[in-house]
Amino acid sequence: MSMKLLILGILMEKDRHPYEIRQTMTNRSWNHAFRLRDGSLYYAVDQLRDHGLIEAVHTVPVPGEHRPDKTIYRITEAGRQEFDRLMYAQLEQPSYPQHPMMMAMPFLRLADQARVAEIAGRQLAACEERIASLEQALAVKASGIPASALRMIEGMLAFGRAERDWLETIIDEARSGAYDQERDPSGGWRRKARPPAPPTQD
Fold first, then answer.
1. In total, how many domains does the chain have?
2. For 133-145, how does the pLDDT look when each residue is reduced to its tens digit (9 = 90+)?
3. Are 19 and 51 members of one domain?
4. pLDDT higher than threshold 70 for residue 79
5. What is the CA radius of gyration of the chain?
6. Nearest 10 degrees: CA dihedral of 93, 94, 98, 102?
7. Which of 16, 107, 146, 182 is the right S-S partner for 20, CB 3.0 to 4.6 Å?
C-alpha cells in the first residue's frame, strides 16, 4: 500500500491539511482495506513536501496554547505526474494471498488443536466485524461515491467473505483433529491415533 498515492489522490480533489486527509480516508472506509497509521501519513506528507510534490498553501491557527497551526497543502504539477506514476504502478502490482495465519498453517500438526481453534475464532470475530462495517458503509455511502470506489468496497467484502468461509473451515477442522497428523509407513500423512477414553464407572 502506497501512502503517498492515497495522499496525492485525495489532494487531487482539493487542498487539505494532514488531519483532514486522515479523516477523509476513515470516512471512506479505507481503514478496512489499508493499514493507516498516523505516523506513516505525516512522514509521507513531509517527504512529499520535501520533494516538491505538494506545497503549503496557508496555515490555520488552532485555538489553545502549545497547539501547532494546521498547514493546508495542495498538490503541485510534479505531484500530479507522480500521482499518475504511482497509480499505474499500483495497478500493475501482482496479488498474492497474504493472510497472517498462512505462514503458520503448514505446522498446525505441531500445535495444540484447541488453541488453534480458539485463535481462529478470534480471527473470525474480527473478520465478521470488518464485514459488518463494510456492509454498513456500502448501504450508507453507495449512492455518494464514485463507481470505482464502490467496486473497491465490494472487492473488500468479497475478500472478507472468502476469509470468513476459510476461517470457519479451519475452526471445524481444528476441533475435529484433522490437523493432528503423523507420517504413515508409506510416507503420507494420517491422523494420529488418539488414546482410548478411560472406562466409565457405573
1. 2
2. 889 888 887 778 8
3. yes
4. yes
5. 24
6. -160
7. 16
189 assigned to some structural domain = no
**Residue 202: pLDDT above 60?**
no
- Residues 84, 111, single domain; the answer is no
pTM listed for this prediction: 0.76
120-168 residue pLDDT tens:
999 999 999 999 988 988 888 777 888 888 898 899 899 999 999 999 9
Q: Does residue 84 sit in the same domain as residue 110?
A: no
Distance from C-alpha of 69 to C-alpha of 62, rounded to nearest angstrom:
5
Is 190 inside a domain boundary? no
User: Which contacts (CB < 8 Å, 24+ apart) does range 86-91 have?
Assistant: 86/2, 86/4, 86/5, 86/8, 87/5, 87/9, 90/2, 90/5
Q: Determine the average pLDDT of the residues in 47-55.
A: 96
Is 81 within 8 Å of 89 (Cβ atoms)? no
